[in-house]
Amino acid sequence: MAEPIRVVVTGAAGQIAYSLLYMIARGEVFGKDQPLILHLLDIPPMVGVLEGVVMELADCALPLLRQVVPTTDPLVGFKDVSAAFLVGAMPRKEGMERKDLLSANVKIFKVQGEALDKVAKKEVKVLVVGNPANTNAFVCANYAPSIPRENFSAMTRLDQNRASAQIATKMGVPITSVNNIIIWGNHSSTQYPDAGQGKVLVNGQWKSIVEAVGDNAFLEGAFVETVQKRGAAVIAARKMSSAMSAAKAACDHMHDWWNGTAPGQFVSMGVFSDGSYGSPKDVIFSFPVEIKNKQWKIVGNLPISDFAKSKLILTGNELQEEKNEALSVLDSN
Ligand code: NAX
């Protein structure tokens, strides 16, 4: 068997982590023959809860799990890790302005970036889930200059999975019969879920989703809105935010980064923009990517409709604004 790798989950006492830790420790991300040492990072008020999570992980009797390291010290949490799931973040509280939320999170992700820079493996893959995920990833990468910035990403996979599920339901096919749906831009309500390049398997044949659905008003209307507002719909129903599906999406994201994408297929990840498709440069923007040898590459030259272009501008502007606000918070500290 391979040597164990160290994997950190932050926000380890929270609700997403409660599902995520189990999925990782089962071998669903790094493989069924890859032993793991799990680092669990949270903040001091959560130490008691964290102890409970450690007990439950032991009681799961998981063959791949060699050791669990619970901690509130980022320098211990990030020490020698090969993969980092940054789930912990400051939640939005009632009456909190976006700027206050951004400001609290900028501070968290600055500290975590600095700790990653000091003690993580240089090849560490960092996935930011905690919101505002794209801008948090931007801040984190900026404070970890010794780690290649390609190693920082933000999660839009939950949005992609939600979009694929909508199309599968609409067409009455299994989820495995839908691929190449794109999430563009920010993980926020300005994101643009785009089925324009997507494919669906109908009667044994892969067809374009646009042709198979045959309803542009739906694809540019209800479909987009349902995906954009799905998080709020889950909160309204469950009285808590998406957790099981967020954990599954985090696993899918890291799994594909680690193992690669299938030929001809792409997935969406928030990554540093090179200005592709008219997006602002140097923000963390969600693009369709192909992955090989643990390196992602933005899929180029996809035909983009005028409708899509207008949506990309909107979400790009929001990311640029968030980045400027984050930088102004950092300058004033
Ligand atoms: P919870 O409030 O259940 O858990 C968050 C945990 O993070 C808490 O235990 C808290 O103590 C911890 N934490 C806070 N600051 C920390 C720090 N500096 N270091 C380490 N841990 C810290 O939230 P949960 O439902 O698990 O959601 C976590 C984050 O994911 C939130 O920011 C949420 O908005 C975000 N989400 C992002 C999604 C995405 O698609 N990118 C979807 C799901 C989710 O809404």
From TrEMBL:
Residues binding NAD(+), per UniProt: D42, N105, V129, G130, N131
Signal sequence range: none
Enzyme Commission identifier(s): 1.1.1.37
Domain Lactate/malate dehydrogenase C-terminal: from-to ranges: 156-327
Substrates-to-products reaction catalysed: (S)-malate + NAD(+) = oxaloacetate + NADH + H(+)
PANTHER family referenced in this protein's UniProt entry, alphabetically: MALATE DEHYDROGENASE
Name the UniProt record assigns to this protein: Malate dehydrogenase
Species per Swiss-Prot/TrEMBL record: Drosophila grimshawi (Hawaiian fruit fly)
Name of the coding gene: Dgri\GH13357
